[in-house]
Amino acid sequence: MQRRRTVLSLLLAGACGDSSAGTSQSASDSDSSVGTSTTTGDAATGSTEEVPTTGSEGSHSASESETGGATATATATETATTDDTTAGVSETGTTEMTSGGCVDECMDGALQCAGADAVQACEVGEAGCLVWGAPDECAAGSTCEDGECVAGCSDACTLGDTQCMADGVADCVDDPMSGCTVWSEAVACDAGEACVEGTCAGPAIDCTDDCVWTKQAVNANIDLYGVWGSSAESVWTVGKAGSALYYNGNTWKAVDTGILTRLDCVDGSAADDVYAISSDGKIIRWDGSEWTFLSNLFPDLGKAGCLSVIGPGDLLAITYGTGSYDVDLWRVQDGVKTLIWEWSDEVLPPIGVKEVSVSFRAFSPTSALATSGHVWRWDGVKSTDLQSPNHSYGLWAPAPDLLYAAARNVGLGGRWDGQMWKVVNPALDGYLHMFTGSSTARIFGVGEQKADSSAAIVAFDGIGWSPAAVPADANSLFAAWTAPTGEVFAVGKGGTILIGK
């Protein structure tokens, strides 16, 4: 009996943390060489039984008092042992994977990509283990690579599209390095062919100064400022008071637009996807059956605008007039407008009878050319003044690195080849308002005679410029467009429309 009490006292002292008893804090830490026995008891009957200790295995056995009671010591010992096992914290404080505990998902300070455009950092979670935190979105235009946000690329074009570049055709392809679309190197057209609307072709009509110009019978005494068609049998011209005329290859018909202000430009991607913009920034769309309102780019009254379509439902536009010298660059996708850039320019009215005008040609969302007094190039990041030698207006640009612009000076224009300017002097005693063409060896400049503001056309055949014979009763010409098959359409003052072929 005395021995049993001694063992009980030692166990109670260990359970209470009495280190002076000379025993360990848990059964699992006991030394098997002690050779003591452990007494187990039945709380209900008070009976006892001596069993050998388990040594290093430890046990969940407990002692009881002589009154038979209590298993509290067993519970305390068992709880302490379980808690030590679950905590799993080493003396250095590093969290370890243990029975019933959490598991580190990552290393402290590590970073990883969460999708293509977000970053996750490794941090301490609620349970005390390291976990991946909430994704942190990268800035607009950036993507995640190897756990870091890096400046991303943007598509330069729509995959499969083509465009004229110099005297060849460039294709829109995937760039395997960036993952974005880019324009390929141009493939030169064959001898005798030229690139027109992204295709090499020998135009059925290839006249220059020998073209026969026919004045069209139009029952409309309104000034016309823009012209474009999907073919020579589907052509639109637009002008004052929201006027729009349509040509089906035989006759011209006035079509209601719902706009009352001057329409400055018209462009499209197909016969049923045509857009026009007014001087106060309203954009309308022709869907093959009617003109409908699409977007309004001006909060206040504007002075001029122009647009260029880069794909179905997708266009870039410039507007002038929100401030004294402000020109805004917009992108409109399916009617949703986004202001992407702006620059300051002094847009003076052309000399002659044409009103204030700007012109624009976009090749992709990140490549465009514009005239608004000065000539500007948009590269997707910023606009650059190309330092044209003269105040410039009507623009024809068959490629991003080649443009012709009409100048404010008498009879002059300018040619930019991607590097430098060359003055174009066709010896016209009048004013040029616009250029057009089917190749670099077939270019037309349209405008007016200085003496009486009658129509004037000059033609370039690849060698030099010559005047073209036009009907004597034709008024000043403000805009021109060349069909893929070679016909040239020129429009202007008082409803004047000429077709050259």
Describe this structure in words.
By secondary structure, this protein is mainly β. It has four domains: 2-86, no CATH class; 111-151, no CATH class; 156-201, no CATH class; 203-500, 7 Propeller (Methylamine Dehydrogenase, Chain H), CATH 2.130.10. It has two helices and 42 strands. The longest helix is centred in the first third of the chain and has 16 residues, at 72-87. It is elongated. Mean pLDDT is 79; it is low at 1-99.
Biggest sheet architecture: 4 strands, antiparallel
* CATH class wording of the largest domain: Mainly Beta
Please report the distance between the alpha carbons of the first and last residues.
Answer: 129 Å
Q: How many strands in all?
A: 42
- Rg over CA atoms, rounded to whole Å, is 42 Å
Number of domains: 4
Strand content: 35-45%
CATH topology of the largest domain: Methylamine Dehydrogenase, Chain H
The low-confidence parts are: 1-99
CATH architecture of the largest domain: 7 Propeller
Judging from the principal axes of the Cα atoms, what is the shape?
A: elongated
* Share of residues in helices: under 10%
| Mean pLDDT over the full residue set | 79
Structural class assignment:
mainly beta
Superfamily at the CATH H level of the largest domain? YVTN repeat-like/Quinoprotein amine dehydrogenase
Given the structure, what is the number of helices? 2
Biased composition (Low complexity): 17-96
Signal peptide: 1-21
Region (Disordered): 14-96
Keywords: Signal
